[in-house]
Amino acid sequence: MPHTTHTQLPDRHFSAFLFDMDGTILTSIKAAERVWGDWAASHGLDVAAFLPTIHGKRTEETVRALALPGVDAVAEAARITLAEIEDVAGIEAIRGATDFLASLPPQRWAIVTSAPRKLAEARIAAAGLPTPDVLVAAEDVERGKPAPDPFLLGARKLGVAAGDCLVFEDTLAGLQSAAAAGMASVVVTTTHAHPLETDVVAVLDYAQLRAVTLPEGGLRLQVAG
Fold first, then answer.
1. Of 11, 20, 87, 205, which one is the catalytic site residue?
2. Would you tell me the crossing angle of helices 59-66 and 73-86 to the nearest 10 degrees?
3. HEC profile for the chain?
4. Whether 149 is catalytic
5. What is the pLDDT of residues 4-39, one digit of tens each?
6. What does the pLDDT look like over 31-44, one tens digit per residue?
7. Which of 35, 107, 170, 223 is close enough to 23 for a disulfide, judged by CB 3.0 to 4.6 Å?
8. Is the Cα torsion angle 8, 13, 18, 22 positive or negative in sign?
9. Distances from the Cα of 103 to the Cα of 100, 121, 213, angstroms
10. How many Å apart are CA 187 and CA 185, to the nearest integer?
């Protein structure tokens, strides 16, 4: 079951917070699984077994890993992405995320997602979340998560050192990416059916969290109240 652990929040300040998107600041599971389920069924895959594998990675990489005969991973990924952009029904912000993000200085946070930019923008808008000044999307890097490249690019675009960033994630691939980038992490568990096998501190959502902006501009993560 989803769980929360506030007792071990990082006891330091950070230059910036970097957020994954799906499962971390918004939930698009229903929409994503509708589109991917239809696609998987059309290719004769076991839909129930396949759907848990789609999260946290770029669409093209997910398709390519299947090695389906006669399937062009680039073309299939483009079709899947278009279908996902058109289907945003049921996408919602994770509890507390809207206010939490709005409380951050614009130059101190970014979204770093495995989704293509147009899909990310559609889902952010559908969830009613604030639009970041910096958005790192699938097409911005050659290597996606779990490689460190997406988070390193996010830090670089914000003009901060990688080691001074705190990452909010919900998948093992994302946590591995953050660790490879030398960044501390918090795992958001609200969409999890089972706890991840990780020692990263977990929070259920953002309802009990607040970000404190220090006089010198740094950020600290605290329990609300």
1. 20
2. 130
3. CCCCCCCCCCCCCECEEEECCECCCEECHHHHHHHHHHHHHHCCCCHHHHHHHCCCCCHHHHHHHHCCCCCCHHHHHHHHHHHHHHCCCCCEECCCHHHHHHCCCHHHEEEECCCCHHHHHHHHHHHCCCCCCEEECHHHCCCCCCCCHHHHHHHHHHCCCHHHEEEEECCHHHHHHHHHCCCEEEEECCCCCCCCCCCCCEECCCCCEEEEECCCCCEEEEECC
4. no
5. 444 589 999 999 999 999 999 999 888 888 998 999
6. 888 998 999 999 99
7. 170
8. positive
9. 5, 20, 9
10. 7
Pairing of strands 92-93, 26-27: antiparallel
Q: Kindly name the residue from 11, 22, 133, 164 that is annotated as catalytic.
A: 22
Residue the block writes with tokens 């501009």: 217
Known catalytic residue: 22? yes
Chain position carrying tokens 């559609």: 122
* Residue with token string 């309802």: 207
Return the structure tokens found at 77: 């990924």
